[in-house]
Amino acid sequence: MQDYIDKNQVEIAPETPVNESRTFYLPHHVVKKQKNNNAKYRIVFDGSSHSPGHQSLNEVLEQGPNLLPEILATLLRFRLHKQAIICDGSQAFLQLTLSEEDRDATRFLWFRTEKDADGKTHLLNDILIYRFSRLPFSLSPSPFLLSASLRELVSKNSDTYPLAAKQLEGNIFMDDFVMGVCTEDEASALYSEVKNLMALISLPLAKWATNSQRLRGKWQEENVEFKAITEVLGVKWNTDEDTFQMNDEDINQNLLKPATKCLLLKSVTKFYDPLGLFAPTILVGKIFFQDTWLSGVQWDEILSPNIAKQWNKWISELSSLNDISIPRWIGLSPSSDYSLHIFCDSSERAFGAVLYIRIQEGKTTKVQLLCSRNRLSPLKRITLPRRELMACLIGACLLNYICSNTSLDRNAATLWTDSTVALSWIRGDPNRWKTFVCNRTTEILHYTTPSQWRHCPGSQNPADHISRGISPTELSSLDIWWDGPDWLSQHPDNWPTESDSLKEIPQCTAEARKTKVQPLCTATFQPVINASYFSSYTRLLRVTAWILRFLKNCKSKHRLFQELTSDEIEKAKDYWILVVQKQCFSVEIKALEKSMPLPAKSKIARFNPFLQDNHLQLGGRLQFAQATSEEKHPLLLDLMVLIILCNFSYATLTCVCITWVSGLFFQNYDRIIGFYVDVKL
Question: What are phi and psi of 282, to 5 degrees?
């Protein structure tokens, strides 16, 4: 608190507030953080406290959007560069000044202090009202204000400090700077640019750490303090070996306590593993905790001897995780060829996916574990093929997340599963499957393509360990987990192949939708246009011919654009003959189509009609006559239609007499009047 006062980060508040309605008093207390044998104390101001019936300060403040990058994405980018640098903005929030009119909202009570001759601070019994002149960390908009200020600083000075601007974009989490470059020269240049850039706002940088030996030498010359073992966003980093390690929280002390459900939750949540490097071991603790829910154990109830024995055995082996070191740098360089490989698997207890990067530099091939994700199976049991599909979905989402937040190419990815059923679902049409499978395969295919999915044997699937769990002592020597299957570092010709194409198996077809045929159209005898709107038969045929050509052009790649041909006019005439026959003799046509006898009341039943190319034609004794087929079996039309057609024929053949026209016309058409066939005009 005295440090706040000495640095003018807080000040004595005036007796009369500038604005009474914007005055708030912040309660505060001390938080002790115990780590190993060291204790660290800090003051916490509570902006969320409130009196009964009133709002807290954080509730009335505009929080602002979240500008912080995701921790996993930042750590993934941190692993891509050979030279890594981190630092911390010292009291970064307190470098931002509060407006005079807003300071009374951050009032708090503290003792009057004085210093003796030795410079030691003493508290007096006089209580004063202080207020912040700088931005306190405890307010809800504080993260946004700091992030927005740093972004604005980087953006305005990107031309002067291009390397720093590029590295800091998306890599500042609160006041932590996480950066990486490829060479030693770039590391030295980056350090100078970042330091000079932050000096523009008087932000001192501390807690420096790097694996660059040249930069470390420079720091020693400049008396810059740096650590060999530090933390990157909570992950332990040994800069001498450039490796990640499990945080050495001494969890073995829980062996001395009775095993309860509450203790299980407290112990399991202590593990911080955002990259999922130790997921197979942590899964065991999660399964233990889920078992307590299934057995109905209360929070403070002592576990059964069987579960307690397994729990204590797992706890006692956790110290072996401290001996595991994972390379921070995955070995990727600008000249490297790489491919991504995601393995997916599921079991009765959990499902998940693990991602490896295969890097080829010349004749050398190296496989590195990049990250993993897993989930416990839901308490509501679902079939194993469905769980396998959920594991594939996690793999697809993990690939999308990594490629969206890094420079890695999603097209260089191959996804592996040992489930032939899930593979068949992914390679099939999503709309073919029931809702559960359809929704998940649709999302999988949104991030991947069917050709990216391959089958691998279950015994060679490293994701098996994040779906079943493994003891801490076995994890350190589990090569298939850290380096992937042996064949992955070999030539692709040695990778697993599918001997036969996937077949329709019962588990796969069980998720198929039942096919329901729904009529998309209904039959109708109504013509496409109303013939009564046309006074000219020629015009009716031409308009009909144009419509028929349009429909044909819609279905064909080779379209017609020239004038109408005689064949198209004949097709238009034929169309109207079919329309008229279906309107006048629909009952007879339906009966003939079903090979059934005509109704007794039909006007044409005695003339033995038949269908020829969907046309209703006259039968009878004329079939034995010496005449053409059209003359022996004329088309049947209604009387009024025949009169119109005959008038048309006479109008177009005005040079001959009407008797000759009618004889020529009725060789092709006939009409019905009552029960008689009349072929005279």
Answer: -65, -30
Single-letter amino acid code for the residue at 175: D
Alpha carbon 140 to chain centroid, angstroms: 29
Q: What are phi and psi of 532, to 5 degrees?
A: -70, -15
- The answer for 468, left when phi > 0, alpha when psi is -120 to 50, beta otherwise, is alpha
- Compute the half-sphere exposure of residue 364: CA atoms within 13 Å on the CB side of its CA: 6
Residue-wise pLDDT tens digits, 106-126:
999 999 988 888 878 888 888
pLDDT of residue 10: 94
3-state secondary structure of 613: coil
Neighbour tally for 664: CB within 10 Å? 13
Domain ranges (residues) in the chain: 1-245, 252-323, 326-498, 531-658
Instruction: Specify the pTM.
Output: 0.74
pLDDT for 565 beyond 60:
yes
List the structure tokens of 498. Answer: 């599918």
Instruction: Evaluate the CA torsion angle 395, 399, 401, 402 in order and state its sign.
Output: positive
Residue 511's nearest CA partner among 395, 391, 424, 394 is 424
User: In the predicted model, what is the mean pLDDT of the chain?
Assistant: 85
Alpha helices in 256-383 (DSSP H): 261-268, 279-295, 305-317
Q: Is the Cβ–Cβ distance between 367 and 330 less than 8 Å? A: no
Q: Is 215 helix (H, G, I), strand (E, B) or coil?
A: helix
3-state secondary structure of 172: strand
Mind listing the pLDDT tens digit for each residue in 626-675? 667 666 677 777 655 545 554 554 455 444 444 444 454 445 555 444 33
CA 201 → CA 38, 81, 97, 190, 197, distances in Å? 33, 28, 11, 18, 8
* Contact present, 635 and 645 (Cβ < 8 Å): no
Q: How many CB atoms lie within 10 A of CB 273?
A: 18
Query: Which uninterrupted H or E stretch holds 343?
Result: strand 337-346
- Of the candidates 318, 322, 323, the residue with the CA atom closest to the CA atom of residue 255: 318
Half-sphere exposure in the Cβ direction for 254 (13 Å, CA): 24
Sheet holding 205-210, edge to edge: 172-173, 176-181, 83-89, 205-210
Order of strands, sheet of 235-238, starting from the edge strand that comes earlier in the sequence: 229-232, 235-238, 243-245, 325-327
**Confidence (pLDDT) at 515:** 65
% the chain with pLDDT above 90: 52
Say if CB 357 and CB 340 are below 8 A apart: yes
Q: Which CATH class is domain 326-498?
A: alpha beta
Residue type, 624: F
Task: Convert the pLDDT of each residue in 306-365 to its tens digit.
Answer: 888 888 888 888 888 888 999 999 999 888 899 999 999 999 999 999 999 999 988 899
Q: Name the maximum alpha-carbon separation found in the chain.
A: 142
The Cα–Cα gap between 97 and 94 comes to 7
Mean pLDDT for the stretch of residues 426-436: 89
